[in-house]
Amino acid sequence: MTIGITALGSGSRGNAFVIHSPDASILIDAGFSRKDLLVRMAAVGVIPGQIKALLLTHEHEDHVRGCRLFCNQFDIPAYMTSRTMDYLEKKETLSSRVLVFAPGEFFEVAGFKILPFAVQHDAIDPVGFVISKNGRSIALATDLGAVNGLTRQRLYDCDILVLESNYDQEMLKNSQRQLHLKRRIMGRNGHLNNLDTLNSLPELLTERTSALFLVHVSSECNTYELVRELARHKLHEMRRQDIFMQVVEQSVPVPTYWLETAGSLEI
User: Of the N and C termini of the chain, which has fewer Cβ atoms inside 10 Å?
Assistant: First the structure.
């Protein structure tokens, strides 16, 4: 087994993913409390002591809630952009050990090669990640308003794709949310809707892609069942029923998906 991913949960109330190799693990976002992170890890067999670092996509509470306490308890560094660090420092929620990266510049953590890239979202300095090891890669973009040229380039031709499918357009339009909030969510710096997500797949998925995780599904303006149905239909249309597809829910962590050397999976 070369590289794997555990989705601890995803949505507006918290996001966290663990990326594994046989040697070490790293945490992407800590949007749940320290206690909740530990409960979720225990439920799917993740050992917290094997996590060597935390990588933050951006400063919103549903991505950083447990950052300070979890990192301090296990004495691991938190990696983030300098602007994200400044914001969390002002909020007095910064962990003890912080390392800074710049979008577009490679760095290495625990044997993983990391490429952060800028995404369009209403945060201070939001990023997605391409995480590689032993010739395998996981591309992750959990919060973005549009799949622009850079995002398309970074998410293309990965072994595992983690991509937002936040809202259904009609459900959002018919919701009781205020107009300014609807406009923010639907804007290019907001969130990605189901159809835009699925319509991007033919440009992103390649023969090497083994798994697709759809994340950050809205609890008010979307349903897990709808996302599953639409994704299955799209993959069937693309003749890619070979791809393992998982819609990540808010409350239920997903067991680790491992890529093996030959490309088969164990879950």
Answer: C
Please state, in angstroms and rounded to a whole number, the distance separating the CA atoms of residues 80 and 257: 25
> Which of 191, 217, 214, 190 has its CA nearest to residue 204?
214
Return the structure tokens found at 20: 């594994």
Question: CA distances (Å), 83 to each of 31, 58, 109, 184, 189, in order?
Answer: 18, 9, 20, 22, 18
Q: Which domain holds residue 253?
A: 3-266
- pTM for this prediction: 0.95
- Give the number of other Cβ atoms within 10 Å of residue 11's Cβ: 20
Closest to 37 measured CA to CA, from 72, 89, 82, 87: 72
Structural domains counted in the chain:
1
CATH value at residue 215? 3.60.15.10
pLDDT of residue 261: 54
Cα torsion 190, 155, 138, 67: sign: negative
**Whole-angstrom Cα distance, residue 169 to residue 188?**
14
